[in-house]
Design a protein that fits this description.
The protein has 2 domains: 4-91, Rna Polymerase Sigma Factor, Chain: A, CATH 1.10.1740; 100-185, Winged helix-like DNA-binding domain superfamily/Winged helix DNA-binding domain (Arc Repressor Mutant, subunit A), CATH 1.10.10. The protein is 76% helix and 0% strand. It is built from 9 helices and no strands. It has helices at 9-17, 21-43, 46-62, 72-91, 100-126, 130-141, 146-153, 157-174, 179-185. Belongs to the sigma-70 factor family. ECF subfamily. It comes from Chitinophaga niastensis. Residues 125-183 form the HTH luxR-type domain.
Length: 186
Amino acid sequence: MTDYSNLSDADLVQMINADDHHAFTAIYYRYWKRLYVLAYDRLRSRQMAEDVVQDVLTGLWQRRGQTVIRSLPAYLATANRYAVFTQLSKMIPVTTVEALPEAVQAVADDTAQLHFLQQSMQEQLQQLPEKCRLVFDYSRNMGMSNKEIATELRISEKAVEKHITKALQRLRVQFRNYFHILSALF
């Protein structure tokens, strides 16, 4: 009786190609855990990792004699990787062709609303007093701190805070009816 656990991978592959079930069982027990760990590391699901390993090893048996295997570990690792990718692709929701025009239209609508709001906001900011508008621009668009703005404009930090508060209050009043759009966009 042959001790399969002491045979090399190359010997086991030759024996599988000759339909030796015991050689397949030896490979199964030799590589199952390694393949499982690799699959689980990417999938983070015990059941999916087990399914992947089962598919890989079943595929090895089903394709016996049809594939030249130079390195069994490399062959199994590659097959495992592709099986994991296949499993992951099944998890990604697919947008149906029928739903695509609606999705494109929704994005176009959101883009148009966002453009309208940006344009309206710029118009509102242009109506602010010059120093208030400048402080708001430095703060929000240039990312300057209140201290930096105060130094740049030679005003107190308290004055900077008052200008920012004034600008934000004006925007809140003008855009109170658009918060539902903003919350849907962001």
